[in-house]
Design brief:
Blueprint (H helix, E strand, L loop, with lengths): L1 E10 L7 E11 L4 E5 L6 H8 L7 E6 L2 E2 L3 H4 L2 E4 L12 H11 L4 H14 L16 H13 L5 E5 L7 H16 L3 E5 L3 H7 L2 E6 L2 E6 L1 H5 L2 H7 L5 H11 L11 H12 L1
């Protein structure tokens, strides 16, 4: 379990540029959970996940990973983080070398490194024939998979994904979301940062909404999407299906605005029309 307890963070303290990014944030992430963190630009999402991953030092509060402070190396190693546009961090001459970089730094034996590289490639849907190919010759979606495979090769217990579909074409986006679903079904605990309510609806079992460094909502996605005031306060829009249902309600058709899939919307509309 990851426990975040009363975490606050302020940048440039004591200067004219001082800005508070987080204000007494508290929540927990249980093993096997799929938590989405949503919020507009500047809401504090990036600061929060970097603190959880141990990349930014705590100013106040605490973050514990399985009961151990994230400041301890053994705790930090349980968390893998994939930043937005992770392919910009690719630098090795081959796909295999890029994926192997982390495990090699952990001091693992060559046989174990090779095994992890192949396992990670297979898991994210990369053909093993690409092992000796330069990552810079791959498509955008493939590069993203290489970057994720590099984190998976470290075998983290918890995985943080920061806007993982940003910049991808529709096909690459669908494929990557399918791989993320597969990771979760395999038992990976995932924290998924996104402003896309559609992605959150399709993936997450729980969503926390941040605005101005505070948590405005923490609960099930369908419960959130029916609460326009919270979404407005956070600068977010519900998924297109939910937007349709809300518009139908405004037009006088009493339908369940919590519908988050096309099938649910169709059933609800047909029920009202009978």
């Amino acid at each position: 379990m990851i426990d975040v307890k009363n975490v606050s963070h302020t940048y440039a303290v004591g200067t004219p540029f001082e800005k508070t990014a987080l204000r007494e944030i508290s929540f927990s992430v249980s093993e096997g959970e799929f938590l989405a963190i949503a919020g507009h630009t500047g809401s504090g999402k990036s600061t929060l996940i970097q603190i959880i991953a141990g990349l930014i030092n705590l100013q106040s509060g605490a973050v514990e990973v399985d009961g151990e402070s994230v400041s301890v190396q053994t705790a930090r190693r349980k968390i893998g983080i994939v930043f937005q546009y992770p392919e910009h961090q690719l630098f090795e001459e081959t796909v295999a070398k890029d994926i192997a970089f982390g495990p090699k730094n952990f001091g693992l034996a060559e046989a174990e490194i090779s095994k992890r590289v192949e396992e990670a490639m297979k898991f994210v849907g990369l053909e093993l024939s690409l092992k000796d190919v330069s990552p810079f010759e791959l498509s955008g979606g493939q590069k993203r998979r290489v970057a994720i495979a590099g984190i998976l090769a470290l075998k983290p217990k918890y995985l943080i994904l920061d806007e993982p579909t940003a910049g991808l074409d529709p096909k690459a986006r669908r494929n990557l979301l399918a791989e993320i679903k597969k990771l979760h079904r395999a038992g990976m605990t995932i924290i998924f940062v996104s402003h896309s309510m559609e992605d959150i609806a399709n993936l997450a079992s729980r969503v926390a909404v941040l605005a101005q460094g505070k948590i405005l909502f923490d609960g099930e996605p369908r419960e959130l999407f029916a609460q326009e005031k919270i979404l407005d306060a956070a600068g977010l829009l519900p998924p297109p299906v939910t937007q349709l249902m809300l518009e139908l309600n405004r037009a006088g058709l009493s339908v369940d605005a919590g519908a988050i899939t096309l099938d649910e919307a169709e059933r609800e509309i047909l029920r009202q029309l009978k």
